[in-house]
Write a structure and sequence with these properties.
The complex is a heterodimer. Chain A is 65% helix and 0% strand. Chain A is an all-alpha fold. The longest helix of chain A is centred in the first third of the chain and has 23 residues, at 21-43. Chain A starts with 8 loop residues before the first helix and ends with a helix. Chain B is an all-alpha fold. Classes of the chains: A mainly alpha, B mainly alpha. Chains A and B meet through helix 2, helix 3, helix 5, helix 6 and helix 8 of A and helix 1, helix 3 and helix 4 of B.
């Protein structure tokens, strides 16, 4: 059996496009955490997120033939995931649920501010992470989607607008309001 | 002293300000503690949001996704098995047909006598015989023979064809069942 772990992503995509299911399986393995996390943050419910994450990969497989070689797969499938999750939530109008797990508090320290274009990933304590996820879960679905795309998936305003099919002005206003709500909610937590 | 709009501070953090706007905003921030504090607070939020880690799903999605996008392969092994089975069945049918033919002949169910229905024939056709002649049967009404009248070779062929049809249908059904099972298997 061929080992896929060392195969470059471009190669995997090319092989998957040629019909090699196992190559696509490796792409799923590499990106499932990103997709599941994005879907769960937008949808809220872990069981539904699991089903939707599968659906994301199935739909992406259908669209794989049109995928341009050389493009990064991860950001693309993350956008597919957020879009699908948002559509699903809006169709179902799910009640807001908390994403906070039962992680134990480990004593959160406030991270230093850093607004460089490519900030290093900070370590979030379990408690702080749960608080952030809970605050995101309380946002309206379209706010959750823009927060996910901008802050977790690093999409530009234009990419968010194209992904969600909304005007650029809506992206800016959604982001602004979502951040205001998050700040209020998280400041209450402190 | 007026302060920077909150939206401007956010766009600065997002890297979405033009060069002139950015320069103006940074000049303001250098001399305004309130706006600098607002920037710091927002930057902390941005950093925390950006630090949300990927989340592994509770189960590996690979087999679940592959079961939906790639049905179980119908590869060379499956074809070899099917062809081997088909040849065995044909061989058995040919070997057993002489033995089976007399037994199967006992099923000789006489076909019911039938006659042509009374139909209104065109004026230029004077009798049913003439109609058959016109249709190319040479004037003789064909008579269907009961199964028992078939010879062993015909029986062998009949059994072989039926067995092949069964095999192919069975293979198709198994394949469909495996695909359906794989789709269901995500739970």
């Amino acid at each position: 059996m061929e080992s896929w772990a060392g195969v470059a992503e471009d190669q995997l995509i090319a092989r998957a496009q040629a019909g090699q299911a196992e190559a696509y399986g490796e792409l799923v393995r590499r990106h499932q955490a990103r997709v599941f996390g994005a879907v769960r943050r937008v949808v809220g419910d872990a069981d539904e997120a699991l089903d939707l994450a599968q659906e994301v990969f199935v739909r992406a497989h259908s669209a794989l033939a049109a995928f341009e070689p050389g493009r990064p797969f991860g950001p693309w499938i993350a956008r597919v995931a957020v879009n699908l999750a948002l559509n699903w939530v809006q169709r179902r109008r799910l009640p807001t649920v908390t994403l906070a797990g039962d992680e134990e508090a480990t004593g959160a320290a406030r991270p230093p501010p850093d607004y460089s274009a490519d900030p290093e990933r900070l370590f979030l304590s379990g408690e702080r992470r749960a608080a952030i996820l809970a605050a995101i879960a309380e946002l309206p679905p379209h706010y959750r989607a823009v927060i996910e795309l901008r802050h977790v998936q690093d999409c530009s305003y234009e990419t968010i607008a194209a992904t969600l099919g909304i005007p650029l002005s809506d992206v800016k206003s959604h982001l602004f309001r979502a951040r205001q709500q998050l700040r209020r909610r998280l400041e209450d937590e402190r | 002293m007026s302060h920077l709009p909150a939206e401007t501070i956010e766009r600065l953090l997002d890297g979405e300000l033009g060069p002139e706007e950015q320069a103006a905003a940074e000049a303001h921030l250098a001399g305004c503690a309130a706006c600098a504090g607002e920037l710091e607070s927002l930057a902390a939020l941005f950093a925390e949001l950006g630090a949300l880690p990927p989340e592994q799903p509770p189960v590996d999605l690979r087999p679940l996704v592959l079961a939906r996008v790639a049905p179980p392969p119908w590869g060379p092994r499956a074809w070899a098995l099917l062809i081997t089975q088909a040849l065995l069945v044909l061989g058995l049918a040919l070997a057993l047909a002489p033995l089976l033919a007399p037994l199967l002949g006992a099923w000789n169910v006489p076909l019911p006598a039938f006659s042509l229905p009374e139909v209104a024939l065109p004026d230029w056709v004077t009798s049913p015989d003439e109609l058959w002649a016109l249709l190319g049967s040479g004037g003789a009404i064909p008579v269907l023979e009961p199964l028992g009248a078939l010879d062993p070779a015909s029986w062998a062929m009949l059994i072989g064809i039926a067995a092949l049809a069964w095999l192919l249908l069975n293979g198709y059904l198994l394949r469909m069942a495996a695909t359906a099972e794989a789709k269901k298997g995500r739970s």
